[in-house]
């Protein structure tokens, strides 16, 4: 067999056929292994290098082909900003919206990491809630406050304070009980003992005028005239608001004039429906609320005298926090010892007052003050009435 000599890196390599025969004998002596699924490797060859140093066995390595890189893609050119703004979306383009579902969270180390969670807790720890709103057809009338109060009262879910006692005070002009609406008759003003009048009923009377301080003058004069005049609307006595048209005899209560659609003006004049102008008027007054201080001018000394002169009284006379229960009396033989240069001390006088307590700094109690007679001289008695304590009685010969 011939020998083949290769020249590589300035070295001579001798390849002989005898070496191949030797390799085949070695392969037969070694038991064969099962073939692996991998691809067969290239056969090994022993090479002998002849040089001046030594003889070496070298394995022949397979030569790998160089991978050719793909050609580089050309750079992408973006249009300028002003040109991109001009580009409009075509109506025929298809828009696709992708919704990503949240990934299921699994407990680390469990066997059901890849399985969806079971619904065994449905109805126990979570429920699916849905709402349905039903709008009734046609007009819907909301319930009024009285219906709501009655419904809450049936349910028994609210706690209400005791009802306020009914106000039985009656206006001597319009004969209506209690305070009126702010944009109407308004509040009641005291005219005399147990005699009341609505603010606007008195203010819109023909004779009454208001001073700069807020006093209403000639209210008693209007009351005496109203007792003889009949209202054109309700046909009851007490009408004091007349039409300001010359020779017009129509007269109304203030509340009846509003119901009859009379026209009120800012200069405190009124025209009945027969004489009022058609349409709206620039001087027309449509709001009657009075928030300023207004009172009825009266003679308080004469009013107190009339109270004292009356025998049995069914009314309470109060000045501030002082309430009079009995005025008392003085006999001729008591006049010399039961008075001073500034005051009288009638025997039987009794009054009560609510004032600060002598025991507690933040409470009030009731003080009953009375005048008695002892050894021909006045005796002043104060009884302290306080809840949780016995009455304390203080007496002395002088009021101080």
One letter per element, helices H and strands E, the order comes to: EEHEEHHEEHEEHEEHEEEHEEEEEE
What separation lies between the terminal Cα atoms?
158 Å
| Percent in strands | 15-25%
Q: State the CATH topology of the domain at 188-296.
A: Herpes Virus-1
Shape category: flat
- Give the total of beta strands: 19
Helix content: 10-25%
How many helices?
Answer: 7
Write out the strand line-up for the largest beta sheet, numbering strands in chain order.
Answer: 14-15-16-17-18-19
Mean pLDDT: 76
Sequence stretches where pLDDT stays below 50 over 5 or more residues: 1-19, 24-34, 36-40, 81-92
Structural class: alpha+beta
Q: Write down the CATH class of the domain at 188-296.
A: Alpha Beta
**Nearest-angstrom radius of gyration?**
58 Å
Q: Tags for this entry?
A:
disordered N terminus, 6-stranded antiparallel beta sheet, Double Stranded RNA Binding Domain, Herpes Virus-1, 400 residues, 19 strands, alpha+beta, 4-stranded antiparallel beta sheet
Description:
The chain has 400 residues and is α+β, with helices and mostly antiparallel strands. The protein has helices spanning 17-29, 81-86, 145-155, 199-203, 219-226, 254-259, 300-309, and strands spanning 4-8, 11-15, 46-50, 57-59, 188-192, 195-198, 209-210, 215-217, 241-242, 251-252, 263-264, 270-271, 295-296, 317-319, 322-326, 350-356, 364-374, 377-385, 392-396. Strands 14-15-16-17-18-19 form a six-stranded antiparallel β-sheet, with no helix packed on it. A four-stranded antiparallel β-sheet has the order 1-2-3-4. It has a three-stranded mixed β-sheet with strand order 7-8-13. The radius of gyration is 58 Å and the shape is flat. Residues 1-19, 24-34, 36-40 and 81-92 have low confidence and may be disordered.
């Amino acid at each position: 067999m011939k020998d083949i000599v290769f020249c590589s890196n300035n070295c001579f390599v001798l390849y002989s056929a005898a070496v191949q025969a030797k390799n085949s004998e070695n392969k037969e002596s070694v038991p064969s292994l099962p073939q692996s699924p991998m691809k067969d490797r290239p056969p090994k060859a022993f090479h002998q290098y002849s040089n001046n140093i030594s003889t070496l066995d070298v394995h022949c390595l397979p030569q790998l082909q160089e991978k050719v890189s793909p050609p580089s893609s050309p750079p992408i050119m973006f249009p300028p900003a002003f040109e991109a703004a001009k580009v409009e979306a075509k109506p025929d383009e298809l828009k696709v919206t992708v919704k990503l579902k949240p990934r299921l969270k699994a407990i680390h180390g469990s066997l059901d990491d890849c399985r969806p969670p079971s619904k065994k807790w449905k109805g126990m720890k979570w429920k699916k809630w849905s709402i349905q709103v039903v709008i009734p057809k046609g007009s819907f009338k909301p319930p009024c406050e009285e219906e709501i109060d009655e419904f809450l009262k049936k349910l028994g879910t609210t706690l209400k304070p005791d009802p306020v006692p009914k106000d039985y005070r009656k206006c001597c002009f319009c004969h209506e009980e209690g305070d009126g609406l702010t944009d109407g008759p308004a509040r009641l003003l005291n005219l005399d003992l147990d005699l009341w009048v609505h603010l606007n009923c008195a203010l819109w009377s023909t004779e009454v005028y208001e001073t700069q301080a807020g006093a209403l003058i000639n209210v008693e004069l209007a009351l005496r005239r109203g007792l003889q005049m009949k209202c054109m609307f309700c046909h009851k006595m007490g009408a004091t608001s007349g039409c300001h048209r010359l020779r017009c005899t129509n007269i109304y209560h203030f509340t009846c004039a509003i119901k009859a659609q009379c026209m009120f003006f800012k200069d405190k004049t009124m025209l009945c429906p027969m004489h009022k102008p058609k349409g709206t008027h620039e001087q027309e007054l449509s709001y009657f609320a009075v928030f300023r201080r207004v009172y009825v001018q009266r003679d308080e000394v004469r009013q107190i005298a009339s109270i004292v002169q009356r025998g049995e009284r069914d009314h309470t006379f109060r000045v501030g926090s002082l309430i009079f229960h009995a005025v008392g009396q003085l006999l001729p033989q008591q006049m010399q010892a039961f008075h001073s240069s500034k005051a009288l001390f009638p025997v039987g006088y009794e009054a009560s007052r609510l004032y600060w307590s002598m025991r507690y700094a933040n409470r009030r109690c009731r003080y009953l003050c009375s005048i008695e007679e002892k050894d021909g001289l006045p005796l002043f008695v104060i009884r302290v009435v306080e809840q949780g304590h016995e009455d304390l009685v203080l007496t002395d010969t002088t009021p101080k």
